[in-house]
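Lab notebook page, bench 4
Experiment: in silico fold of construct C2
Operator: M.H.
Input chain length: 312 residues
Purpose: comparison with the prior construct
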Amino acid sequence: MSDLLLQMGTAIPPGLTGTLGLSPVASPMHRATAREQVRLVNGEGTVVGVAKRLHSDMLDWVDWSGSVATQRHAAQLGVAPNVWCAVPENHVHVEQWMGAPWRTATLADLSQPAVLDAVLATKKKLHANGPLPEVNDLPDVFERIARLSTRLRLNALGVPADLDWLIRRAEAVREAIGPTAERRTLCHGDGSSGNVLLGPDGAVMLVDYDLARNEDPHLDLAATLVESCELDEDWAAALERTTGIVDRATLARLRLYGFADDLMWGLWGCLCSTASRRGGIEFFKYGQWRLLRSRQVAVSWPFEQWLRTAGV
């Protein structure tokens, strides 16, 4: 903790001291796994900010400058906490602490239609402002899947036995969606409930823009829906509430993007379980859960139908 504060130097507002922030958790959801955190406390003992430093084993996964630029942009739109300052050479930034009545969402929260709709509406507010140049060249979900699979094979540890089949399924999804993908626009890129803040009167903010990038906004919506919708009718109902209609092609693209998001995070968990030196974080367990769900979808009878329908 003291090391992080020293790296912040004069960037830390005067009169603030540090206390331990969130501990990293990878199961049942990933939270605080990419960055070390120190909460900043004023002289009255109130937490007012949080300093975050990107872990060295996440430098290949997170584009630090892009994530900070996106959060600053999102804060201007009112959908993220303000970034106070940043030290690029140390991959550290300080952001506003959202205390009570704000709180971190849970999967149970996202299972409530009103909360889920508010989260999707917040993401769409981000989408509506178009692409952000700072994250224009970052990899999309399919490129990340390819990179993760390559690294897993090179490590020769934690490689799923059916990796080749899963990659072929992902390639089929990419081909099916490709011709009909919407124009790329700025997306949050993460569906974890742990990166959603719920405030008074149904207010929502999004935090941790680690995978923020310009891409098809349907992928951003699917990343949230795959974590909150268990049944087919849940997906359809969420789409109808969001767009006013259940379009079969759009629903198919969402479901296929959900598969891709599960596969990406599953491979990420497998890789981190062997490549990261940080112990006590259940990367492998989290990865296996996401891979299990991706397999269940890929062998389900509607999957082939989604591949045919997504391009209609």
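Observations: Residues 2-96 form a domain with the Phosphorylase Kinase; domain 1 fold (CATH 3.30.200.20). Residues 10 and 87 are 10 Å apart (CA to CA).
Next step: discuss at group meeting.
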